[in-house]
Specification:
Elements: E1 7-8, H1 13-20, H2 35-48, E2 57-61, H3 67-73, E3 78-83, H4 86-96, E4 102-105, E5 117-123, H5 132-142, E6 143-153, H6 160-168, E7 172-173, H7 180-189, E8 192-200, H8 219-236, E9 250-257
Parallel strand pairs: 1-7, 2-3, 2-5, 3-4, 5-6
Antiparallel strand pairs: 6-9, 8-9
Length: 259
């Protein structure tokens, strides 16, 4: 898959992700029963291991339904969520269901805040943006000295997901070609120190029936695939989401603002 691959119209992007599954968060002790719940919980387990113990305030940009920030709120953080789409902000408010948080609809490039943040997070955002250096410079200004950025990105590349998409004849969203090395170099050029950077997420999402490509996946099939993924995760251990470039759907970068 390349930047010029056939893609879903950008206007349908917000509608598609928002209706796929409104609530991804699992309460303590709950076991994932859908693939997206499994992925969301696995991402949270990874992110949580990189949240500094002294962290008090976090900002999620391109927050969507706010899944990651809702988990961060369980750590007692003062969380702020920003998304450019009002639909996403509305969905996030419903997802938090009374949990204290600040929700902002707006363009992160032009927003300002009274106080800096200890942590900025993003999930599946950078691959949809054109001015990535501008975004990273903006993030740098929003962080406290030695504040942390944690970002998961899924750029245009071959992956297990693109293989599944090809089998199903499924169109993808527009993504920029933004390899891991380019991201690391760009972070260093915008005054960040790299803490970790690795290829991430080998588990593709199946959401239609293989033999009936126009039909949604059966609930029983959904549970079976999720159970298989949970079993693989137990076999692979704590770092089960880490993988190689060939299989990875994306990558995770952790970087601290230079003091």
């Amino acid at each position: 898959m390349t930047e010029n691959s056939t893609c879903v119209d950008e206007r349908t992007f917000g509608q598609s992700w928002s209706v796929a599954e409104n609530r991804l968060n699992l309460e303590p002790g709950q076991i994932p029963v859908t693939q997206r719940q499994f992925v969301a919980l696995s991402l949270w387990d990874t992110v949580r291991s990189f949240v500094p113990a002294t962290c008090q305030r976090s900002l999620e940009i391109g927050a969507g339904r706010g899944t990651l920030s809702r988990y961060l709120a369980t750590l007692g953080l003062d969380v702020t969520l920003v998304d450019i789409e009002e639909q996403a902000t509305k969905l996030a408010r419903g997802n938090f269901a009374g949990i204290p948080a600040t929700f902002i609809t707006g363009d992160i490039y032009s927003l300002s805040f009274e106080k800096p943040f200890d942590l900025v997070v993003s999930v599946g955002l950078m691959e949809h943006l054109e001015d990535l250096p501008g975004l990273l410079r903006k993030v740098n200004t929003l962080l406290k000295p030695e504040g942390r950025l944690i970002s998961y990105n899924a750029p245009a590349k071959w992956s297990t997901q693109s293989l599944i998409n090809w089998i199903y004849g499924r169109l993808d969203y527009k993504r920029v070609h933004f390899p891991l090395k380019s991201c690391v170099d760009m972070l260093r050029n915008t005054r960040f120190n790299i803490v970790e950077a690795f290829w991430y997420k080998p588990y593709p999402i199946f959401n239609t029936e293989l033999l009936h490509r126009d039909k949604p996946i059966l609930a029983s099939t959904e549970r079976f695939i999720t159970a298989v993924y949970c079993h693989l995760a137990r076999l692979r251990g704590r770092n089960h989401m880490k993988t190689n470039r060939l299989l990875a759907i994306g990558y995770l970068v952790v970087a601290d603002k230079s003091s």
